[in-house]
Amino acid sequence: MTSLPPQPLSPLDGRYRAAVEALGEYLSEAGLNRARVHVEVEWLIAQTDRGFFGSSPLSAEQKAQLRSVVTEFGQVDIDELASLEATTRHDVKAVEYYVRRRLELLGLDDIAELTHFACTSEDINNLSYAITVRDAVERVWLPKYRGVIDALSALSVELRDAAMLSRTHGQPATPTTMGKELAVFAYRLERIARQVEATEYLGKFSGATGTFSAHVVAAPDVAWPDVSREFVESLGLTWNPLTTQIESHDWQAELYAKVSHANRVLHNLATDIWTYISLGYFRQIPAAGATGSSTMPHKVNPIRFENAEANLELSSAVLDSLAATLVTSRLQRDLTDSSAQRNIGVGFGHSLLALDNIERGLGEIDLDRSLLLADLDVNWEVLGEAIQTVIRAEVVAGRSTIADPYALLKELTRGKRVGAAELAAFVEGLEIGEDAKRRLLELTPATYTGLASELVDRL
């Protein structure tokens, strides 16, 4: 048997690449290296702007040329860095040598020793991860996540008046509307979206053990904490003044916990939609030419939501592991975070793939309103709650002397199917006011939805 040509090991880089490739711009080795180059370049510019060690500020043209190293970073640069790392066996040192080569090409050899000046690798890495994770979340994951919220919200409004039997504990219960039930998920997801949007992306830039020790020896008169804060903030990050060699990764743990929470709410949505499909409430719109089953030609399987479930579980497994692992580092530094963080893209990739499936799945379903109404019409016993509640109000108002209204309705309805005629006869015989009796006689399971439709406006 001949060997296969090199193949992607992860389905995210194979079968599902098209759905997640936008994340590769940031949460890939190449994306991380570009961010590392970005940090090194900006640190060079920041130092020369301050005239450190007799250096002169770079001209606008020189700054533009240096920054173009980042903006034009491509496959040739990726390959060059791989070649350098094969020699250095150190990814950040390879980046330093790469930047030094660019300084030489630009005729800026005189500031070469300011490259990576007073930096430990983690000074570059933590800022690079913060930049890439921030950009991946804000430019890729959040827009897709909000696309699902928007689709849900639109469906909620469209179906706000579609009366539906509730099924608390899987049993017939007080009716609701499909729109209101979908709005519950949209509201939950929106809360988490705001929390993710409020994420602080922290960064440190303080040397080998977070003490500015080498900095102070090289330049005792420089206010290094101020320089560090200004540099970190210039990258659009929040400065962390108290760290070991590493930034403590608490912001990452907080973010991944929020995304994992979002995954679980989305998982709940996927399982509910799947269940509504299985009940026949939602019909799936078949895609032209698609096959649902290899043997049963009639089937249209809810694969979008099943695929989403699996990928949400995988995403949360990775993100939960990262959140638990990254907050611990032995003493002033160990290297467990280095390998762990290389899987950030995996966690977000599975979540993004699930979001894509849910968004597409929501666009491929159609509500069978007639089935919802038929389901309601054979479950008149759900009005037992309304009747006993009205009797209680009438007793308090002095218009009834019925003892224990709940027990009365329990005897009539618990575990039984009660039809419209039986309930009407029961209500007619009740000792309650005429206005209350009229309201109950006019009530049907399809109209017993309270404020469900109005609640959709809370979105």
From TrEMBL:
Main role? Catalyzes two reactions in de novo purine nucleotide biosynthesis. Catalyzes the breakdown of 5-aminoimidazole- (N-succinylocarboxamide) ribotide (SAICAR or 2-[5-amino-1-(5-phospho-beta-D-ribosyl)imidazole-4-carboxamido]succinate) to 5-aminoimidazole-4-carboxamide ribotide (AICAR or 5-amino-1-(5-phospho-beta-D-ribosyl)imidazole-4-carboxamide) and fumarate, and of adenylosuccinate (ADS or N(6)-(1,2-dicarboxyethyl)-AMP) to adenosine monophosphate (AMP) and fumarate.
The record's gene field reads purB
Q: Which CDD domains match?
A: PurB (cd01598)
Its GO biological process annotations read: IMP biosynthetic process
Gene3D superfamilies, sorted = Fumarase/aspartase (C-terminal domain) (1.10.40.30), Fumarase/aspartase (Central domain) (1.20.200.10), Fumarase/aspartase (N-terminal domain) (1.10.275.10)
The molecule here is called Adenylosuccinate lyase
Top-level taxon in the UniProt lineage? Bacteria
Q: Enumerate the UniProt keywords alphabetically.
A: Lyase, Purine biosynthesis
Pathway in which the depicted protein is active: Purine metabolism; IMP biosynthesis via de novo pathway; 5-amino-1-(5-phospho-D-ribosyl)imidazole-4-carboxamide from 5-amino-1-(5-phospho-D-ribosyl)imidazole-4-carboxylate: step 2/2; Purine metabolism; AMP biosynthesis via de novo pathway; AMP from IMP: step 2/2
Upper classification of the organism: Bacteria, Bacillati, Actinomycetota, Actinomycetes, Micrococcales
* This protein's record includes keyword Lyase: yes
Record-annotated Fumarate lyase N-terminal domain positions: 60-308
Source organism: Agromyces mariniharenae
